[in-house]
Design goal:
Elements (H helix, E strand, L loop, with lengths): L10 E5 L6 E6 L7 H8 L5 E5 L2 H15 L8 E3 L8 H12 L8 E6 L1 H13 L5 E6 L2 H7 L4 E6 L2 E8 L4 E5 L8 H18 L1 H16 L2 H21 L14 H10 L8 H18 L5 H14 L15 H8 L12 E6 L2 E5 L4 H12 L2
The protein binds nicotinamide-adenine-dinucleotide, the ligand O=C(O)C(=O)C[C@@H](O)[C@H](O)[C@H](O)COP(=O)(O)O and zinc ion.
């Protein structure tokens, strides 16, 4: 690989994982010139592109142009329905069938073009096909550029809970073209922004302070601010995954707000009523509240976190989601299926303050119940 294979003006974040290391390319219109990098992974063959019905008309032509520019004639893309409901067994079966119907060999490469739903299900298909083939992530939502395309968590949801079926399978390359975000609806931009704020809240207080100043610019699509936010988020995630690929330690911090958030998502049926990033926003506010109630975090820090999320337009309380009758027992049952549960006890990601997250197992269930009862009270 030569530096001339990387488009000018590209930030390159390296995720160091020994033989599974890879580059994350970030930049405005970086996809336009990414053909040689894709060709290097596919050894000059066409990748099997997986995308969704919204993304295909908007961004597949750019990818196909890129491939043709590198002498690769694209094959017909596999186009799945858009949205969280696609991350289920039925669509996984359909995707696997479409991939295997192509008579693939182990050298085949899948390419996920889309948001976290497409990235997660395609990554899981790559982990499963012929017991593991390569895949490339071309994330097109803010959430997938700052989070889901990086780190190798792949999978689907189950009626039993969120992401309960899946595999760790790292991509070979990530291409985050921030210009693709120009077509992303504002609600989806905001949902992705919640995961950006997460990095500030778990261990980067300086980044959180930058977001307090510049968050509106990121959300509004200012190209410099957006690119900085995506690159810093990828750096933050790469630093954590690089030392704890399979979540036996610090990687769990990336789950701030998710134990609550996943339960809220399950309660709303993994659908458009509550997006993942929105659930994470509410979940992070609840995690700060819980930390305050346990005497671990100053109330002023919790208020700062909540105020920033709310100021950009994110929900911060379950009651911010209209038309849902929340059931605290149901939420607690869902939380008990969290992947961080050990010996029957939930591991919570808590905070000592802004940018200082840690995990704790011995949280009094009565405090959690009261917190949720207060949070869902009208
Ligand atoms: N693997 C991980 O580490 C990880 C991390 C965070 C989240 N996730 C998962 O990611 C999923 C959420 O991802 P998401 O928020 O990207 O949702 P998504 O994939 O559903 O995309 C959101 C919506 O935006 C549309 N879209 C995508 N790109 C677009 C573009 N450029 N222009 C216009 N529309 C576009 C999609 O069609 C969809 O309707 C959840 O399932 C979550 O669990 C995984
Ligand atoms: O990469 C990680 O690790 C994360 O926890 C990132 C989260 O934002 C993401 O939502 C992830 O899919 C949650 O993982 P899970 O193991 O709790 O399902
Ligand atoms: Zn998440």
């Amino acid at each position: 690989m030569t530096s001339s294979d990387t488009p000018a003006g590209t930030d390159i974040v390296r995720l160091d994982l020994g033989p599974r290391s890879y580059d994350i390319l970030v930049g405005d219109r970086v996809l336009d010139g990414a053909g040689p990098r894709i060709a290097a992974v596919t050894r000059g063959k066409a990748p099997i592109v997986v995308t969704d019905e919204n993304v295909a008309p908007l961004h597949l032509p750019t990818l196909e142009r890129t491939l043709r520019g590198s002498g690769i004639e694209p094959t017909q893309a596999i186009v799945l329905p858009a949205g969280e409901k696609t991350k289920d067994f039925a669509h996984f079966e359909r995707l696997m069938d479409a991939v295997l119907a192509r008579g693939i060999e182990r050298s085949a490469v899948l390419l996920a073009l889309g948001g976290g739903v497409i990235g997660d299900i395609t990554g899981f298909a790559a982990a499963s096909a012929l017991r593991g083939i390569d895949f490339i992530q071309v994330p097109t939502t803010l959430l997938s550029q700052v989070d889901s395309s990086v780190g190798g968590k792949t999978g689907i949801n189950s009626p039993h809970g969120k992401n309960l079926i899946g595999a760790f399978h790292q991509p070979r390359l990530v291409i985050a073209d921030t210009a693709t975000l120009d077509t992303l609806p504002r609600r989806e931009v905001l949902a992705g922004y919640a995961e950006v704020v997460k990095y500030g809240l778990i261990r980067l207080p300086g980044f959180f302070a930058w977001l307090e100043e510049n968050g509106e610019r990121v959300v509004a699509g200012d190209s410099d601010a957006r690119r900085y936010a995506v690159t810093e988020s990828c750096r933050a995630k790469a630093a954590i995954v690089g030392v704890d690929e399979r979540e036996s330690g610090d990687r769990a911090l990336l789950n701030l707000g998710h134990t609550f958030g996943h339960a809220l998502e399950a309660a709303t049926g993994f659908g458009p009523r509550l997006l993942h990033g929105e659930a994470v926003s509410i979940g992070m506010a609840l995690a700060f509240d819980l930390s305050v109630r346990l005497g671990l975090c100053p109330a002023a820090d919790a208020e700062k976190a909540r105020a920033h999320l709310a100021r950009v337009g994110l929900p911060v309380r379950p009651t911010d989601i209209p038309g849902v009758e929340w059931d605290v027992d149901g939420l607690i049952l869902s939380m008990a299926k969290d992947k961080k549960v050990k010996d029957g006890r939930i591991t919570f990601v808590l905070v000592r303050g802004l940018g200082d997250a840690f995990t704790q197992r011995d949280v009094d269930p009565a405090v959690v119940r009261t917190l949720l009862e207060d949070a869902v009270a009208p």
